[in-house]
Structure prediction request, 650 residues.
Amino acid sequence: MEKQKFYITTPIYYPSDKLHIGHTYCTVATDAMARYKRLTGCDVMFLTGTDEHGQKIQDKAKEAGVTPQQFVDGIVDGPRGVRDLWQLMNISNDRFIRTTDGYHVSAIQKIFKAMYDKGDIYKGKYVGKYCKPCESFWTESQLKDGKCPDCGREVQDAQEEAYFFRLSKYAQRVQDLLENTDFLEPRSRVHEMVNNFIKPGLEDLCVSRTSFSWGVPVDFDEGHVVYVWIDALFNYMTALGYQNEAHDDLERYWPADVHFVGKEIVRFHSIIWPAMLMSLDLPLPKKVYGHGWLLLDGGKMSKSKGNVVDPYLLAEKFGVDALRFFLLRTFPFGSDGNFSNELLIQTINVDLANDLGNLLSRTTAMAVKYFGGTLPEAKLADEAQDGELIALASGLRGRYEAQMEKFQFQNALAEVFKLIQRANKYIDETAPWVLGKDIAANGARLSQVLYNLLETTRICGVLLTPFMPESMEKLFAQLGSCCQSWESAAAWGSLSQTVTVTKGENLFPRIDLDKALAELEELQADAAQPAVEREPFMEDVDFETFSKSDFRVVKVKDCQPVKKSKKLLRFTLDDGSGTDRQILSGISMYYQPEELLGKTLVAIVNLPPRKMMGLESCGMLLSAVHQERGEERLNLLMLDDSIPAGAKLY
Ligand code: MSP
Prediction:
């Protein structure tokens, strides 16, 4: 029988900054879903990637003094970049698209042209407001208190010749789609879209820009680049081969089963995206699911507010699986949730160390202690004492599946943990250590009890695998690599009666809350400071202006602190002219005068003389200055001593 297809996507990320825990949240959720679907036997396509065009990236690259391509390459492929993060987090995406990939760029040009040829894209004049950080255009009436309705920041006036997409033409069809189908979930988001955006009147959308160049060029009208959201949204199809030859899976996987997206980009996915697909007579994705945000102190994390939480730091400190688990166990996927370090540590301690960790370690330890690891054959369970546990375990997969199909990860995990807690209670009720005192008399019952516990642990292990793949592999190693199939999760008794278990490492060691919190705070404060802060580059000057500066090699003949000055050093320098030159430099906190004697330095010698503390300074010594973790660092420019005084620098 042909496998059922399942195509799932994450938003493609802006590589304008390093990703934070909020981005990680959505990707981990998508990964858990993709792994779950694979477990159930589906043929899964899981796509993620990066959305690399737009003015914001162009500006950031300029600030960094690199080309936009170099800039995005650094954040996508560089150390601790996007790909590294997904690898660390054990993300099992089948494909990764970059919107700068050649095949995507040319496909977008074809798509834009096709909508133009159809008459759904036309040329007009754009007059309105533009929010640069969001790359969104707004009409006056859409603004909230004169600011961007999405992010609340200032908007700018904008007017230019531009192309427009006839979004208004599709307003009714999109409204029907939202209101009369389950295209958009959770349902609360439908009302928001219809009432805030469609009912007030859906205006045509400006879909090209001429004020910057970092984008997909409109190939039939030089100077225009395609609006970044058209470029971005079609990634879901170009990555499968739509309008290109790089891939060939469109028929197999399109339409997508679900796009997971954060709530602020639901508008693009549930209004603009279906309208464009309607324009091209393409099948619509089956569902858009708008998840909530992870908040920090009640507000959205953002690099500009300086309150982002670094997923590398948390994963390295607490383990990848613990972090993955925490994100999906703690926050209902459709709503916002407040992140805190304390909550993270408590979740690990309560659910993983106490409940799951204890169940596994106590059970395997007893199997090893009483039976050398291999359970003896025993008759099946005792109905009266074991019925409740077995019934709960046997029905778990169904309850879990019902929640997973609704993307309710938190509820699915709650079902698993109800069973884990029940199993721990069952240990207390059956008191295997009492049975173990007289194996001859109670061996058969003890074996039954341990079997029930191991089988319960196994079923939980199967269902936890999409959330914590690596740890569950270790758990199964301790359970004798027993059956881990989806089918077996609903079939009590799949574990061999004479299973052999081993007592392995403690999968989730308990964390000392206070100690870990203090350490984390320190690490996070450190990480909040950029290691090295670079001054932005200055405006260009022409060569003539530059060449007026006279830089010379100088040798230090004498160096003395200036009396009463905390900063100044007085240098007597040989500048090659035969007359000593005096320069004062405010660097006494970085150097002892005596260590500079005889050094070969660089000075600019044609600055007008300046008086400081009553002494004349004729020029300036050059040094490299930078900020490191909030502190200024300075190094005098020192040259090889073989270079003679007076040599000119160009
Ligand atoms: N490039 C667009 C998506 C284009 S999809 C065709 C984009 N990129 S983004 O990098 O800014 O955001 C990517 C996703 O991360 C969005 O879904 C956004 O909601 C999500 N998150 C960013 N911060 C978040 C939290 N603090 N919490 C949860 N998700 C958040 O938008």
In short: The CA atoms of residues 171 and 390 lie 53 Å apart. The mean pLDDT is 93. Residues 11-14, 22-23, 25-26, 51, 232-233, 235, 261-262, 264-265, 293-294, 300-301 surround 5'-O-[(L-methionyl)-sulphamoyl]adenosine (CB under 6 Å). DSSP finds 21 helices and 26 strands in the chain.
